[in-house]
Structure formats: structure tokens, C-alpha cells
Amino acid sequence: MAKLNYKYVKPFKNIFFLIVLVFAVWMLFFDANSYLIHHELNTEIEELETEKEYYNREIEKDKKAIKELSNDLGVEKLAREKYYMKKANEEIFIIEYEDSIPKENKND
To answer: What does the record list as coiled-coil region(s) (predicted)?
Structure first.
């Protein structure tokens, strides 16, 4: 039984092994460039790349909207649909369907 325990203790008596072990533990957990810090930074990089993709999609949508609003027909369409504007000799009828009307909360 003592020989079995001695087999596992023997590497810890070697000074080079102890130095390498202490160095590895220091580099993994305590150093400024530790694995834990690298993991946090990699997670933050992934989140920022996701945000970058989102903002690039939003920029493309805005460019498309600007392109549509660059001519008179696009401006007229926006004014009629969003702001319910009309020409002087027109009448506008707004048709709302039952499912498009917001429901009031009875608990208020």
C-alpha cells in the first residue's frame, strides 16, 4: 500500500516538475493573460460581432428607406400611409380591422 502512494508522490519531489506545475497554475488562473480573462474577452468579442451584424442590417434597411424617400412618389407614399396626409381634393377613409385595434386592459 505504501508503494502505491509513493508512486503518486514521487513526481512532486522533483523540483522541475513543481516549478512547471506552479507556472502552469499561475498562467491559467492568476496572470493578466490567464485563460479566464481570455474566455471573458472572447465572449465579449462574440457579443460585439453579433451587435455589429445587427447594426449592419439596420444600416442596410435605412439605406433602402432613404433610397425610397429620394423621389417624390416615395415621400408621398410615406406621408399617406404613416401620417394620413391627403391632397386638397381627396378624402381618406381609414379602415381598421378588429384584430388590428389594441385591446384595453380591464384591470386598470
So the answer is: 38-72
